[in-house]
Amino acid sequence: MKYESQRIAKPYFVFAMMLFAGQILFGLLMGLQYINGDVGFPYIPFNAARMVHTNLLIVWMLFGFMGASYFLVPEEAETELYSPLLAKITFWVFVVAGVATILGYLLVPYAELARITKNELFPTMGREFLEQPTITKIGIVLVCLSFVFNIGMTILRGRKTVINMVLITGLIGLAVFYLFSFYNPDSLTLDKYFWWFVVHLWVEGVWELILGALLAFVLIKVTGVDREHIEKWLYVIIAMALISGLIGMGHHYFWVGPPKYWLWMGSFFSALEPVPFFMMVVFAFKMVKERRREHNNKIATTWAKGTAVMAFLGAGVWGFLHTLAPVNYYTHGSQLTAAHGHLAFFGAYAMVVMCMISYSMPVMNGRPQGNSVQAQKVERIGFWLMCIGMLGITFALTAAGIWQVALQRIPEAGKALSFMATQEVLKPFYIARLGFGLIFTAGVAAYFASFVVANKNGKQYPDANATLAE
Amino acid sequence: MAEKFTKSMARNIYYGGSFFFLLLLLGLSVDTVRQLPKREHREALTEHVIAGKGLWETNNCIGCHSLMGEGAYYAPELANVFDRRGAGNEAAFKSYLRGWVNAQPLAIPERRKMPQFNLTDAEIDDLADFLIWTSRIDDNNWPPNVEG
Ligand code: HEM
Ligand code: HEM
Q: Residue A414: which pLDDT band, with cuts at 50, 70 and 90?
């Protein structure tokens, strides 16, 4: 670690991982509710569990991106963070706002939460992923502003590397597009049209910039490959991401009101969206192959390669599967959507955060060459169990989705099975999904255990740099 | 990548490409926003429909159901529930919806449960108006059949 203030990343990562654990717990609960509707009812109805699951996901992604930026930016800029104090205050504000909101979801009915938080004064609640009370949304904006300001000032003060510039562009985009969550018009079609300005322009737009920057940073660190080379790749990747992704948003406008031209525009441009993800795979493997040094943090390299591959599978392959209008006509809003949502979110954004953690936590703990061999072994088990678990979830939901389309959507009216009857038939797939969910959970447990192992035998891995870092 | 392809060329593609497509997106958005009133029948967007949308949101219906294919996949699609259950008759649909919402949760073991929201009849009628209005949006003929 080059700069003392990078250490502020640690609480962000630790808290992100705690939220991750919570997210998985509620995922398992929903997995059970899919099989037996009585589980948890009426105390935690499915909709409450789902809000908690997806909101924890989003919030831990944000904590992860923030932690990653606080670690990465000073190192790239070659200067201390502008204000470590502000970063600490922001952390606690975000923690309090996040925990209070999740408790709100769980402790009172949603309508009651809307009343308590005076939603009627400025209604923004009740839309998927944007369920946060308006006051929480304002809190998130303030947290993002403070964060972007702190990061921005640090970059202004220091070296403006391509990685830093791409990262800050992504972070500003994240903050700016979130503002659309305050726009909730009476017209449902307008509402839906601009809802995607948050959701799509995040995950298939500016978040890809963040993903690319974080991946490039870790690759530079573990491979020692020439920066010029990596920067060129980074530019091409993010160029392709935005060129395909901006108009690619049309794949969400097929069946929710917008005009017909989106059918072919959305299909064409979104069909190009896998390209940047494929380039990330080539990029990661090429850099590792051309590495100039042997870094002992092998597992961080595994995470970097794994992120590229799983993001390509989840976003690229599973995204392409249902992105053409004639296919999407049948698969829209089916279990196939959920299959893709899971593999894409996990493969791209959950994994890139864990990749950054895997590289930076040992550094912050005074082990610049990575954790002990035992700890890395345990982490590797976690890595594989999570990947296998998530691929299993994806296959189970994909099979469920295809079967759902075959029973419920393709037959003509009269012959088609109703939604509820179809769900009954799909139960075996949901049982399989739950099984893979348990494997995934075991992976998370192993991953957490690796931190304990690392701390226990932290001194077993002495190396030349260790004294320099402290 | 060939050596002739330099970093500054890559950067220019990034800046030029994203700027161009951002402008295109803006243009298309302006056009879409202009066309939506006709496609959604904005003239029929009454106070009741608006109130219904509010109730839809504050009760987090989207947490279980999908609406025009977006939302959760735990419970049936509702953008076409008027077509499915109302058979084109608004009064019949309203009385169906009152009966349905008030009967929740159904006491069928292991069946997925819909909570009891304690809504008044007037509120349920607003929700019905919202769902009826939604069912008439021009959505390029989705879903494929009435089952949603
Ligand atoms: C890492 C990047 C991505 C993430 C995290 C992601 C995540 C998601 C999520 C969560 C949804 C469901 C949204 C909802 O609840 O309505 C979704 C829908 C969709 N995604 Fe992605 N996605 C990514 C990239 C892509 C790419 C690259 C493509 C196309 C090649 C794609 C194609 C689609 C399509 C067509 C839908 C709509 C499915 C439907 O009609 O039901 N996604 N995505
Ligand atoms: C034990 C593991 C997990 C289980 C059993 C699980 C289960 C579920 C269930 C049942 C839903 C609701 C689907 C519906 O609306 O009907 C859901 C939604 C979702 N989950 Fe998970 N989940 C798990 C892990 C994860 C992970 C690791 C991620 C991402 C990193 C994730 C991201 C999402 C997203 C983005 C949605 C919304 C999908 C959409 O709208 O299409 N889940 N999950």
A: confident
Closest CA to A55 of A113, A120, A112, A122: A113
Tally the C-alpha atoms within 13 A of residue A129's C-alpha that lie toward its C-beta: 18
**How sure is the predictor about A461, in pLDDT bands with cuts at 50, 70 and 90?**
low
**Cβ < 6 Å from ligand 1: which residues?**
A 128, 203-204, 251-252, 270, 273-274, 311, 315-316, 319-320, 322-323, 328, 332-333, 337, 340-341, 344-345, 348; B 69-70
Query: How far apart are the CA of A340 and the centre of ligand 1, in A?
Result: 6
Interface probe for B, chosen from A124, A129, A246 (most Cβ of B below 10 Å), is A246
Percent of chain A whose pLDDT exceeds 70: 97
Q: What is the distance between the alpha carbons of residues A159 and A185, in angstroms, rounded to a whole number?
A: 43
Atom 32 of ligand 1, residue of closest alpha carbon? A319
Tell me the C-alpha distance between A233 and A266, whole Å: 26
Instruction: Give the pLDDT of residue A39.
Output: 97
* pLDDT tens figures, A239-286: 999 999 999 999 999 999 999 999 999 999 999 999 999 999 999 999
Tokens 């990262």 belong to: A167
Residue B71 host element (H or E): strand B70-71
Residue the block writes with tokens 């590397």:
A161
Res. A466 pLDDT band, cuts 50 70 90: very low
Minimum-distance ligand to the CA of A434?
A: 2
B70 bridge partner residues: B67
Kindly report the average pLDDT of chain A as a whole number. Answer: 96
A345: left (phi over 0), alpha (psi -120 to 50) or beta: alpha
- Whether B14 has its CB under 8 Å from any CB of chain A: the answer is yes
Do the beta carbons of residue B24 and residue B116 sit within 8 Å? no
- Digit-coded pLDDT (tens) for B23-66: 999 999 999 999 999 999 999 999 999 999 999 999 999 999 99
Cβ proximity of B100 and B20 under 8 Å: no
Taking CA atoms, B85 is separated from A88, A424, B132, in Å, by 55, 21, 11
Q: Is A262 within 8 Å of B115 when comparing Cβ atoms? A: no
Report the alpha-carbon distance of residue A45 to residue A52 in Å, rounded.
11
ipTM value, please give it: 0.97
| B residues 108-147 closer than 8 Å to A (CB) | 109-113, 115-117, 130, 133-134, 137-140, 142-147
The reported pLDDT for the residue numbered A413 is 82
DSSP H or E run through A29: helix A9-35
Task: Please count the residue pairs, one from chain A and one from chain B, whose beta carbons lie less than 8 angstroms apart.
Answer: 232
Angle, vertex CA A281, rays to CA A294 and CA A383, nearest 5 = 65
